[in-house]
Amino acid sequence: MSEVAGRIAGTIRPDIRELSAYPVAHAEGCIKLDAMESPYELPEAVRDDLARVLRDTPLNRYPAADLSELRQAVKAAFGVPAAAGVLFGNGSDELIHIVVQACCNPGEVVLAPWPSFVYFDMAARFDHARFVGVPLADDLSLDLPAMLAAIREHQPKVVFLAVPNNPTGGAWSDADMAAIIAAAPGLVVVDEAYQPFTDRSWMPRLLDAPNVVVMRTVSKIGLAGLRFGYLAGHPDWVAELDKVRPPYNLDVLTQAALLTVLRHKPVLDAQAARLRADREPLAAALAALPGVRVFPSAANFVLARFSGKLDGNAVHLALKQRKILVRNFSNAHPLLAGCLRISVGSPDENAALLSALQDILSA
Ligand code: PMP
């Protein structure tokens, strides 16, 4: 063992050494349907606006302490109740850490239906909490009795509910969510990363229960490059969580860009509506392919199971060879055997995907 390897082995936590870093595929020249990004760029007029604003944003000072202008803009743009507080994160990934760090003593439990967003598990581990994933039913719907039993058994400090859920696309019913919120002894984080693609939201009920916050991101509505997420909740919850937030976590360029883009919010809404409208035709076309099962989705992606002559791994590879990237979940969890998660792309990208799949599956 080299000297460095020896020092690493004696220093880095064994559970960290065993992990792989969060996977981000190289995408040069590819059709990118693996990360639920919007395929649509901002229109010229918005980009001109951005260029002007960013030119005039001073970089020599730390971000201002008073973020009330941005706070007001975000609350107005996204329908956050006036009485709620909001906390900003460098992506909602950072907010997930903040919640776990603020709530969990070492070894205390973070719980979520599973499979769900992999970072709930990763962040919990990094932050010395214990993650409990409660298996979904075989059809990837929520197993409410199992959730309630697990909450009773593990008394989680934090429950994450991604609605719609990633990577399955399903949206848990309001009644199931209410039952989980009522049973949870700690904080329930409703992660609405994919809310722009459904009519449902917990936001109007944000302040009804004493233990709920709603987390959102702008990543799925055309701004994944900005790294901005927000968490809304009772101001007292937000004040506690804010103590853990890294200083100046939201840089001045992100703040300025966001304020500018939010003045053009209807553009983002129209792009999201387009993706939402294109979801069902894509799902139907996928479901018509031989050996493919598509799970119901309320998000900007669909989960498809390949169990014909070619399995998920083979189809994933064949698509990659044709420079089409989708996310392979075949080996991630037994409930996801054979499953690929496919973002809804532009009409041309969707057509290219379907034609490639026709080719691959009929070969
Ligand atoms: N929550 C869910 C359910 C997600 O799927 C994702 C992104 N994959 C995130 C949060 C993180 O989003 P962000 O880009 O804001 O960090």
TrEMBL record:
<keyword id="KW-0032">Aminotransferase</keyword>
<dbReference type="GO" id="GO:0004400">
    <property type="term" value="F:histidinol-phosphate transaminase activity"/>
</dbReference>
<dbReference type="InterPro" id="IPR015424">
    <property type="entry name" value="PyrdxlP-dep_Trfase"/>
</dbReference>
<keyword id="KW-0028">Amino-acid biosynthesis</keyword>
<keyword id="KW-0808">Transferase</keyword>
<dbReference type="InterPro" id="IPR005861">
    <property type="entry name" value="HisP_aminotrans"/>
</dbReference>
<dbReference type="InterPro" id="IPR004839">
    <property type="entry name" value="Aminotransferase_I/II_large"/>
</dbReference>
<dbReference type="InterPro" id="IPR015421">
    <property type="entry name" value="PyrdxlP-dep_Trfase_major"/>
</dbReference>
<feature type="modified residue" description="N6-(pyridoxal phosphate)lysine">
    <location>
        <position position="220"/>
    </location>
</feature>
<feature type="domain" description="Aminotransferase class I/classII large">
    <location>
        <begin position="30"/>
        <end position="357"/>
    </location>
</feature>
<dbReference type="InterPro" id="IPR015422">
    <property type="entry name" value="PyrdxlP-dep_Trfase_small"/>
</dbReference>
<keyword id="KW-0368">Histidine biosynthesis</keyword>
<dbReference type="GO" id="GO:0000105">
    <property type="term" value="P:L-histidine biosynthetic process"/>
</dbReference>
<comment type="pathway">
    <text>Amino-acid biosynthesis; L-histidine biosynthesis; L-histidine from 5-phospho-alpha-D-ribose 1-diphosphate: step 7/9.</text>
</comment>
<dbReference type="Pfam" id="PF00155">
    <property type="entry name" value="Aminotran_1_2"/>
</dbReference>
<comment type="similarity">
    <text>Belongs to the class-II pyridoxal-phosphate-dependent aminotransferase family. Histidinol-phosphate aminotransferase subfamily.</text>
</comment>
<protein>
    <recommendedName>
        <fullName>Histidinol-phosphate aminotransferase</fullName>
        <ecNumber>2.6.1.9</ecNumber>
    </recommendedName>
</protein>
<keyword id="KW-0663">Pyridoxal phosphate</keyword>
<dbReference type="GO" id="GO:0030170">
    <property type="term" value="F:pyridoxal phosphate binding"/>
</dbReference>
<comment type="subunit">
    <text>Homodimer.</text>
</comment>
